[in-house]
Backbone:
RNA sequence: GCCCCUGUAGCUCAAUGGAUAGAGCAGGUCUCUUCUAAGGACUUGAUGUGGGUUCGAUUCCUACCGGGGGCACCA
């Protein structure tokens, strides 16, 4: 709808650029509004309000007949639009009939690689991993609907010194049987112990590096251990991904680029991009104001940056992406600045748009960083389990008569909805202090509120027993929808495609989440104040049912983008 | 010291440079013989400080104060 108005205004005013149309919070300032007069007043040397009045009169006179109910200038120079009921009702029928409502084409079929999740082998995922996983999955969905071809990439942390440390720890203290019984739990214990003992015995650090070097040089025993650890880890990750309902197209981890390490280092040194320094090889980034980036350790082993460069090469060649998004925590900002700077030196900077999608850390209760090494991280698995338990309690209290398997299903879907929405509605790159109660809040501005709204809409439709044939848009008289709550809900529905587009452009899940909340509020207001099944006017009842069906569809689609499932009953 | 993120109500968060700064939680008052009360209707309450840019600043710039993270052999 804003695009439609923008186009009408652009034509009438003969503007050469698209006219910005915003949606004021208060209807007092119009259903829609533009500040074009404020922008042009200076250029034209006319007082803004005068220009706004001139524009308003011009637009009112030249707009399609009956489209606007009112066009008004307002101080200091806004032009405000009220769309007529008839125009809104027409638009609503179009929306109701549009099977692909929300789909856009800013992507134009171009490829974007979204890298997210990136768990580390032999470690449990902690609550921090949930952010990248959920945000990345949602952004991928949003971009896909915006017309991009999306490659979802899980770049596994399956290589590096940490495995040297783990192998060293296993060789010193590992018990094969224990590890076989509960692999990740035991491996993580070994890892934590290694770091604890390292504090009093610095020799261990060297030992870890040596074991990694051996692994990288193809040592048989280390290789076998590594493969075992990786296999067990993947099993564990798959459990979590099934619970979170996220998927990937590519699973290539760091180890996949292990063979390209030598060539990558060689290229960088041959082209004089990298140089020897203190026995290691580094890329000096003084020219762009960054600290030097290490690409080979003095013992000859590789580093994450080396692998990232090789990986980048591979991605560009295989997928020819327009963009690569790295959904990684804010803490790694420097690492990405360095990666992008090195890419630029290699001439890869303009091949694709490289973007670090940063997000704030999940901090522990004390406001301090979570650490697997220190054993202070809250494990994701536990959080997911607890969420389901809590959801189950709420269901037992609210809806005790449901059959047990229904309760189980609802508890699961609601718990995931609560966790995901809680995270996705806050796109600020601000750090999040881990807060159990807030994460598992099922009331107010929460995932379950949206799921509840959806279930209520569906419940009304179910009870109406109206066939989809009877509710097809062509058979409906939308002009019967003239109450304020009905028109407000329609106008909310009109925003959806714009919101999806903007969320994709800003890489902002919260843009979408906040919109869906407002849509749900509008839907709640509608069915709280408007009788539907009890409406004795059958034609109007059907029109209202179509409005409900459409709102439910948009809500479901939007929640689906965020990775949140809906339920027919809750 | 340098770099990144950040400072909005008691708490957790919103606000493509716009108009009267919005929500949720917590607190107070109502609302289930009426389509699911995980709801709805009211109500109390806020932009760290000083400059600047702008017709207009929570938003941009700058200084200061506070919080988190990072800064060569981890990722």
Residues:
């Amino acid at each position: 709808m804003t695009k439609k108005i923008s186009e009408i205004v652009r034509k009438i005013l003969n503007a050469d650029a698209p006219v910005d149309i915003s949606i004021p919070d208060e209807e007092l300032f119009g259903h829609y509004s533009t500040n074009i007069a404020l922008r042009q007043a200076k250029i034209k040397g006319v007082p803004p309000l005068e220009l706004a009045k001139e524009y308003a009169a011009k637009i009112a006179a030249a707009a399609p007949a009956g489209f606007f109910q009112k066009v008004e200038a307002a101080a200091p120079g806004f032009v405000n639009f009220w769309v007529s009921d008839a125009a809104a009702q027409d638009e609503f029928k179009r929306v109701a009939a549009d099977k692909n409502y929300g789909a856009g084409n800013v992507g134009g079929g171009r490829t974007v690689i979204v890298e997210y999740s990136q768990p580390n082998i032999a470690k449990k995922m902690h609550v921090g991993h949930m952010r990248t996983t959920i945000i990345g999955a949602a952004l991928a969905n949003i971009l896909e609907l915006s017309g991009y071809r999306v490659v979802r990439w899980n770049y596994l942390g399956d290589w590096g010194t940490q495995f040297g440390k783990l192998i060293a720890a296993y060789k010193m203290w590992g018990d094969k049987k224990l590890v076989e019984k509960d692999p990740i739990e035991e491996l993580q214990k070994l890892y934590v112990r290694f770091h604890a003992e390292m504090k009093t015995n610095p020799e261990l650090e060297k030992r870890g590096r040596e074991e990694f070097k051996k692994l990288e040089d193809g040592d048989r025993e280390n290789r076998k251990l590594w493969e075992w650890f990786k296999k067990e880890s993947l099993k564990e990750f798959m459990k979590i991904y099934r619970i979170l309902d996220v998927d990937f197209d590519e699973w290539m981890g760091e180890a996949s680029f292990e063979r390209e390490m030598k060539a990558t280092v060689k290229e960088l040194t041959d082209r004089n991009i990298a140089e020897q320094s203190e026995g290691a090889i580094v890329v000096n980034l003084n020219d762009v104001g960054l600290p030097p980036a290490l690409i080979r350790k003095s013992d000859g082993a590789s580093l994450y940056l080396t692998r990232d460069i090789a990986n980048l090469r591979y991605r560009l060649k295989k997928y020819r992406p327009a963009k690569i998004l790295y959904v990684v925590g804010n803490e790694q900002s420097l690492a990405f600045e360095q990666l992008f700077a090195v890419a630029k030196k290699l001439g890869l900077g303009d091949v694709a748009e490289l973007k670090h999608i940063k997000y704030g850390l999940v901090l522990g209760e004390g406001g301090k960083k979570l650490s697997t090494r220190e054993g202070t991280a809250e494990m994701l698995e536990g959080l997911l389990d607890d969420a389901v338990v809590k959801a189950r309690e709420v269901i037992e209290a609210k809806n005790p008569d449901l059959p047990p398997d229904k309760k189980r299903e609802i508890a699961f879907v609601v718990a995931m909805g609560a966790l995901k929405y809680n995270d996705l509605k806050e796109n600020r790159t601000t750090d999040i202090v881990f807060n159990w109660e807030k994460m598992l809040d099922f009331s107010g501005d929460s995932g379950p509120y949206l799921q509840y709204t959806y279930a209520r809409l569906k419940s009304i439709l179910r009870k109406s027993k109206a066939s989809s044939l009877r509710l097809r848009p062509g058979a409906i008289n939308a002009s019967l929808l003239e109450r304020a709550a009905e028109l407000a809900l329609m106008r909310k529905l009109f925003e959806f495609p714009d919101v999806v587009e903007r969320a994709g452009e800003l890489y902002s899940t919260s843009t979408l989440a906040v919109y869906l909340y407002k849509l749900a509020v509008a839907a709640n207001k509608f069915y709280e104040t408007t009788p539907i099944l009890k409406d004795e006017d059958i034609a109007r009842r059907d029109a209202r049912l179509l409005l409900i069906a459409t709102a439910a569809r948009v809500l479901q689609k939007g929640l689906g983008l965020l990775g949140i499932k809906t339920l027919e009953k809750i």
Remarks:
- The mean pLDDT of chain A is 93.
- DSSP finds 20 helices and twelve strands in chain A.
